[in-house]
Amino acid sequence: MGNKPVHKVLVVDDEEPIQELLKYNLEKSGYEVKTAGDGSKAVEIARKFQPDLVLLDIMMPKMDGVETCRLLRELPELQKTFIVFLTARSEEYSEVAAFDIGADDYITKPIKPRALVSRIGALFRRDTKKTGTSNAISIGDLTIDRTSYTIKVKDREINLPKKEFELLYFLAQNPNKVFSREDLLQNIWGSDVYVLARTVDVHIRKVREKIGDDYITTVKGVGYKFSLN
Fold first, then answer.
1. 167, 188 in Cβ contact below 8 A?
2. What is the maximum alpha-carbon separation in the chain?
3. Which of 127, 137, 157, 214 has its CA 20 to 30 A from that of 23?
4. Which residues contact 193 (CB under 8 A, 6 or more apart)?
5. pLDDT, tens digit (0-9, with 9 covering 90-100), for 54-101
6. What gap in Å lies between CA 171 and CA 173, rounded to an integer?
7. What distance, in Å, lies between the first and last C-alpha atoms of the chain?
8. In sequence order, which residues have a C-beta less than 8 Å from that of residue 211 and are 6 or more positions away?
9. According to CATH, what is the number of the domain 8-130?
């Protein structure tokens, strides 16, 4: 137990009582926790703290949660970091915006602290199972290394946000096999996270923009596959 690495969590919320409540319950469960009251401060702390997970509100002063998420996803050192929105905003467009910008989960308030800690634990457990079988995949000019979360096309290195990387890696592990959107939602986001099907389309489009159109093929009426030419 003493050798088990401690996961680091950054709580970002402009309401101090919520910060303290979440900090108390997360530390009680063994996490190392830092807090921030706005998006700008969160990005500043994240660069130094390098959290394994960020709990992020949407409605905040100076910088909202969606913009904060975008900036966090641009930091190479946070490519493996989970970003979970915890917010009172329950509108579908807010949820879509959150997943489109790279969120791993979207939870609406109020939520009981024990339920939140359990959900966070499930994210880490699922990630451990994936990394346990991680390896580099080389196909043609494309190399995908899950250990370092790096991608190379020819000699050009590309950084992908966590979910875009997971999606590409999963498809590349199963070349020429067609997966429906529902299959990809289940395997990449998991059954305990509710995500709209169009989120898959958005992530596929973003991956293609970065690595080119030669690798992921759309099978009309069915889904997507990684093509071996």
1. yes
2. 56
3. 127
4. 104, 105, 106
5. 999 998 888 999 999 999 988 888 888 999 999 888 777 788 788 878
6. 5
7. 47
8. 142, 151, 153, 158, 168
9. 3.40.50.2300
